[in-house]
Amino acid sequence: MLVVIDVQNDTFDKRGTNFAEWSKVIEDGIARRIDEAIENNESIIYTKNLYPDFEYDERSAESIHFDEAIYPKFYERLEGYGDGYTKTFYGIPPEQGKNIYENYKDEVETNQKIEFIGVETNVCVLANIMVIQNIFPKANITVNKKLVAAASDDLHDKTLEVLSNMNVFIAE
Asked: Most CB atoms closer than 10 Å: which of 46, 85, 105, 109?
């Protein structure tokens, strides 16, 4: 199973509010990994971060909706083959976690590997690993360190270190 976290215009498009150059470093690798999952008929879960109501006090609805959209390079891949879950803050909310459990419990029991890719390592990737790890405690959780990134290299590296101490395998 592949879990793709927040590959949205917000960070991957130069017009996005939180665009960072590091997103361009991982963009092609993420696309290739999603393609590989599609070719292998691997389940794909992806998250989409929706901004809370208070964001509308600070910027336009047009800006928010642009940032929330899945980045075009990933859109067709994920919309066509993935199972999308929305969240308003960092992690998938409990009711959606229950849906993930019901939809994937049999698959995870027979194939216990769950790989995470996306952004940002120290925020949404970390939070969603914790959610999924609690839903499927016997799963082999993996993070491909070349397919996750954060605005801070230091926080990225520290988060990978913390995750490795929480029984998460860090792949190269």
From this structure: 46
